[in-house]
Structure formats: structure tokens, C-alpha cells
């Protein structure tokens, strides 16, 4: 919204926020629409790039398998560090 007097046709703003539903210049509304479309295009492009960078979506079973394998690796490392601190070599020794 530019704040100038409206002398030509009045357009009702479709923007989100406090301007929504208020009278604006037709040119101001066109600028706002163009800006919104550009912003949506940028978001869609960023989302597509993020999805492409992540690779294919894993199935739930594969995701769980990887999480459990990571937990096992963490537990194994914790056991090794505890054994190294206490001077023992095996588990439950």
C-alpha cells in the first residue's frame, strides 16, 4: 500500500494481513500479486531442491532399520568407552 489518494478504480486488497479487504490502487495490487507469485515460486523451487538433495524417500521399515542400526552403534561405542575407563575388555565383566 502506497498511502496515496485513490483517484482511479478502487480494488479490494487480497493480501494476507492487516491490508486484506481494504481499498488499494489497482497498480499496487498488481505489484503485490506479482511479488506473492515470485515468493511462492522461490519457495517451490527451494522445496524441490531440498527434496532432490535428500534423495528418494525411505520406506518406514527402512527408516526404522537405519535408526535401530544407529542406536546399536551408539550403544556399542558407549560400552567400549566404559570398558576403556574401567580397564575391562568385555561386556558385563
Radius of gyration: 29 Å
Secondary-structure element pattern, one letter each: EEHH
Major beta sheet summary: 2 strands, antiparallel
Molecular shape: rod-shaped
**Can you give the mean pLDDT?**
85
Q: How many angstroms separate the termini?
A: 75 Å
Walk me through what this model shows.
By secondary structure, the protein is mostly helical. It contains two helices and two strands, in the order ββαα. The chain has helices spanning 26-54, 60-86, and strands spanning 10-12, 23-25. The protein has a two-stranded antiparallel ribbon with strand order 1-2. It starts with 9 loop residues before the first strand and ends in a 7-residue tail after the last helix. The mean pLDDT is 85.
Layout of helices and strands:
Layout: E1 10-12, E2 23-25, H1 26-54, H2 60-86
Brief synopsis:
This protein is mainly α. It is built from two helices and two strands, in the order E-E-H-H. The protein has helices at 26-54, 60-86; strands at residues 10-12, 23-25.
